[in-house]
């Protein structure tokens, strides 16, 4: 296991696995996922959305290029068919699904536009979701502290609809959802923020703890309020 997502798969599941849940609920409702719906989740990570779709009665399938994530998703959602594959090359025939979703994943595709075209090839309805623009996210304060200066907003975060249109889809819905990240203590906060990082861990831990002070709760944990945007298309 040498790919970066496989290396952090266990940590991802523990620290971030449930993070996108409010966006997942909003997308499931907006796309009508329910009993009998055939759903594919692309970049399924540790499989939380697959388990949720199953609870809604859907027939869930997942794809992720990282074998470590695929293994975890199969454990989290044993009823789902999870295959190894990236968003640009999905190992299913045309029109296999009613709904194809991607949460916090499409930005990792080398060519996100081509990836959306591929999502549409295998399904009739496509929903993509990801972090909203940086100004809406408490997490930005910590990222900026680690960088040493504010970063400009990235393009993909506020243009999911444009991306969909560029991929030839008609946008049929969009929305914004609050997603809160909780860390129960200092250690969890630092591990969660620095997950996958390779910089100077001690110095970075101090920076993270200082930057996160405004978000400390009475119980000694942290609560960071962020936002996800989603777009739906056909
Ligand atoms: C930030 S995690 C999100 C996981 C999950 N969707 C969630 O919301 O919890 C990103 C996931 O995208 C996967 N990924 C990376 N490159 C990808 C690609 N080109 N196509 C599809 N998924 C990719 C990673 O392996 C990882 O599981």
UniProtKB/TrEMBL annotation:
Q: Which InterPro entries does the protein's record reference?
A: Methyltransf_11, SAM-dependent_MTases_sf
GO BP annotations, alphabetical order: methylation
**Gene3D superfamilies (UniProt xref):** Vaccinia Virus protein VP39
* SUPFAM superfamilies, per database record: S-adenosyl-L-methionine-dependent methyltransferases (SSF53335)
Q: Which UniProt keywords apply?
A: Methyltransferase, Transferase
Q: Which Pfam family is one of this chain's hits?
A: Methyltransf_11
The regions listed as transmembrane in this protein's record are none
- A single GO molecular function term of this UniProt record: methyltransferase activity
Ranges for domain Methyltransferase type come to: 40-124
What name has this protein been given in UniProt?
Class I SAM-dependent methyltransferase
């Amino acid at each position: 296991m040498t790919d970066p997502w496989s290396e952090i798969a266990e940590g991802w599941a523990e620290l971030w696995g449930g993070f996108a849940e409010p966006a997942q609920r909003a997308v499931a409702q907006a796309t009508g996922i329910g009993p009998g719906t055939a759903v594919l989740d692309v970049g399924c990570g540790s499989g939380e959305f697959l388990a949720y779709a199953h609870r809604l009665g859907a027939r869930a399938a997942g794809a992720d290029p990282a074998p470590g994530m695929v293994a975890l998703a199969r454990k989290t959602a044993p009823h789902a068919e999870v295959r190894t594959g990236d968003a640009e090359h999905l190992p299913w025939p045309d029109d296999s699904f009613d709904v194809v979703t991607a949460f916090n994943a499409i930005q990792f595709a080398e060519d996100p536009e081509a990836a959306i075209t591929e999502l549409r090839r295998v399904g009739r309805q496509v929903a993509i979701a990801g972090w909203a623009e940086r100004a809406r996210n408490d997490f930005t304060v910590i990222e900026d502290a680690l960088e040493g200066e504010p970063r400009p907003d990235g393009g993909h975060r506020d243009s999911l609809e444009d991306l969909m249109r560029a991929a030839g889809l008609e946008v049929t819905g969009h929305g914004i959802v609050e997603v809160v990240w909780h860390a129960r203590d200092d250690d969890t906060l630092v591990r969660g923020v620095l997950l996958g990082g390779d910089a100077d861990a001690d110095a970075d831990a101090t920076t993270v703890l200082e930057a996160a002070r405004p978000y400390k709760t009475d119980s000694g944990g942290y609560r960071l309020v962020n936002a996800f945007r989603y777009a739906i298309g056909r």
